[in-house]
Amino acid sequence: MIVFDEETGEIEIEKTPSTPANPAEGVINGLSKADTRIDNLEFFSHGSTVGTNALIERELPRIGLITTEGFRDVHEIRDATKEDLWDAYQDVADPYVQRRDRLEVPERVDYAGNVVEPLDEDAVRDVVRIFKKRGIDTIAISLINAYVNGEHEKRVEEIIADEYPEAFVCSSHEILPEMFEHERTSTTVINAALVPVVRDYLTDLADQLADRGYDGDVLAMHSGGGVMTTEAIAYYAARIANSGPTAGAIAGRHIAQQCGFENAIGFDMGGTSADVSLTHEGEIETTDEWAVEYGYPIMFPSTDIETIGAGGGSIAWIDDGGSLRVGPKSQGADPGPACYLRGGDTPTTTDANVVLGWVDPDQFLGGDMDATAEPARDVIQRDIADPLNLELTEAASAIEQITVANMCNAVRLVSTSKGYDPRDFALVAFGGAGPLHAAHVAREMNIPNVIIPPYPGINSALGCLLVDVEHDLSQTFIADAAADVVDDIEAAFSEMEAEIHDRLDEEGVDESEIQLDHEIKMRYTGQWRSLEVSCSRPIESMAEIRSQFHSQHEQTYAYSDEDQPVEIYGLHVTGRGVVEKPAFPEIGDGSADGAKRTTREAYFDSAGEFVETAVYDRDELGAGATLEGPAIIEQMDSTVVVPPNATAEVEQTGNIILTV
């Protein structure tokens, strides 16, 4: 948690354990520890993993799905792909709605929106009564081709309101008015499933804050990079399923820009996983399709983040072929690595870092945590070193090298696989474990600079202070991009803008603070993969937009053909209610000598041996301080490793820039 005082420029940091049984309690606990009183807060924004965790753990209400007769199994058939194409025995995740709770009604609308078969309202009433008898009060509606004509879905909603007024209803034509029935159904179902979970959490949090004197909006980060009010999220709950990592990506961009870098790769490594994002020319890469579990996409715009099972608690193990592996299984924070003395009895990445001398267990959480090195040595010796006939140090170093290799793979997924050269980027490393490994990841990927923010462990919380109130809309719009369709596009954009203005107005955003961005989804005719091409209004020429599409296609897929016909697939508008951002103060000057605390032996693979390494106190490093590796910089929420032949410099706002 981070509290920023706009008048004095002071920053207050607090970290408290999460409370899964009642997530709102954890937020209140953190605020209660702060010196700033809750009734003095003027702005409150937060990121949450409540939705993500509910999907992962399947802690969801029982959901009913109403669909067109003959399409009951779309949700389970999915798109028939698998995460591992070559594993014939791999089981896909179960559908969120069991077959017995997916009920059909006769109706049919064709591709153009014409009613082919009227809605059977008596059948709808029968279905609703079945759900009511079963106690299912969360209902998703996804009728075929409702994206082009939603009248039948609206009528189903009206019947449910009449027969079962206490039920929550979510319709696909409102949630995602786009073609492809599986994606639309999946998004609608997931959104419906999360609404009760997220609504209860946010209502509880808002009530507790109000009881303590906070009278402002309770804002939550959503996956697209903005914030929404409690009332908006109560209907679009799936929007916050990727909220925490998105906040980290936004903070990573801000930190990079503070240091003069418009191209940055965000590297957020915690106890269980690592999230990697990319910012190019000041814009964070986004995607309009992502998933918590493979096969069930969420089609709301989101920061494009690659997540891998590589964190401080990732378990090192030997597979059946005798090869050393690290992750994706993790000890997490409880029981945690063996060195935590909480019952963990398997070797982890953090245990390896302790053995290598990179981390002093006596300094975990600034010395407030009981930990020791001996259990780390024991489990690595027993489970890794002895079976592989390695020395203890060799085994710990091997664990670290594999961890770095795993993280490099994630960096490649957001960079080289999408046409970006990592050498053109800075690596912004945060999370409790990110600064430990960042320099080695950067060297492996030929990234010249690493940026470590002042508070790596709570950097994602910083991102929540740097966002705007945001809504976006999309709709299917199929047309030949070579035809004269500018007037039709302009008319569609105008309708979407009007709805966004209405939404932002309901959330108290002044008209003068609204900014709009427009994108046209385009693809080569006959293909299904599309790209979003930015455009300004009024649109002057489709020829310029087609040219941008060809350029983006070349960058993304290393191929383009200007003679190939291009078609428009959809339109997308994003509206932002601009919120004033905090301006962070500069820190005082100071040299590294005054921050040096001690020295200790640390092992570096490049040296092939333990090296006497200076240890510095991060809090004592002033602006302009420079130091040579090998060095270790310790602080309450993280540890920075500066390997041999690397240099570190502290810039004016307290960020450390490593040149590796």
From TrEMBL:
Signal peptide: none annotated. GO terms for molecular function: 5-oxoprolinase (ATP-hydrolyzing) activity. One of its GO terms (cellular component) is cytosol. Residues 482-651 form the Acetophenone carboxylase-like C-terminal domain. One of its GO terms (biological process) is glutathione metabolic process. Residues 184-472 form the Hydantoinase A/oxoprolinase domain. Residues 2-162 form the Hydantoinase/oxoprolinase N-terminal domain. It comes from the Archaea. PANTHER family: 5-OXOPROLINASE RELATED, HYPOTHETICAL 5-OXOPROLINASE (EUROFUNG)-RELATED. This is 5-oxoprolinase. It comes from Natrialba hulunbeirensis JCM 10989.
